[in-house]
Specification:
alpha+beta
Length: 178
Amino acid sequence: MEADVRRADAATDLLWPSYWLVSGLEWQGDGVAEAAMAVAPGMIPRDALSHDARQVLGCADLYSRKHGQRVVFFSDLTGMFAEAGTSWSQLGVDWERALRELSAGEFPVMLLTISERAYISICASAVRGVAIPPNGGPDESVDDDRELVRQAVTRQLVADWPVYLQRILDARRVRTAG
C-alpha cells in the first residue's frame, strides 16, 4: 500500500511539477518561433549533473520557493544576481554550459513556441523596471509584460506538460514491455 502511494506521488510530481525553469533559445523566427525551453527541476537527478547545472537548478529552486513562482525564467536568476551586484561568472558558474546540459539531458525538455515580444520578456535580465524593448527606448511596462508572459507560459505548461509527459511515459512502457 505504501509503495502504491509513493508511485502515485511520483506520478503526480512528474505530471504536475511544482515549477518549471524556462530559458530562451536562439531566436530563429519571424514573429513566432520555437525559441524557449522548459524543464521541471524537481524531476532532474542532481547527482548526474555538472557543478554548473546543479548550481543553476539549486538557484532556481530557491527562487521559486521565495517568490512562489510556478515558472521561473532563467533571466529572473541572472537579474537577481545583477541587482545583488554579482553574476554567474563571479560565482564560478558557466551558465551557458549549464543551459546546454539541461537542454540535452536525459530528462524531459519541452520546447515552447513563443512570440518575439514574449521572447524578449523571457530573456531580459535587466534590473527591474529598466530594460530595452524592441523599439529601442526605455519602457516602464517591462515588468507588466514579463508577468503577463509568465502567466501565459504557466497556463500553457499546466495544460500541455501532463499530456507531453504522459506520452513519454507511455512510450517508455511500450518499449520496455516489448
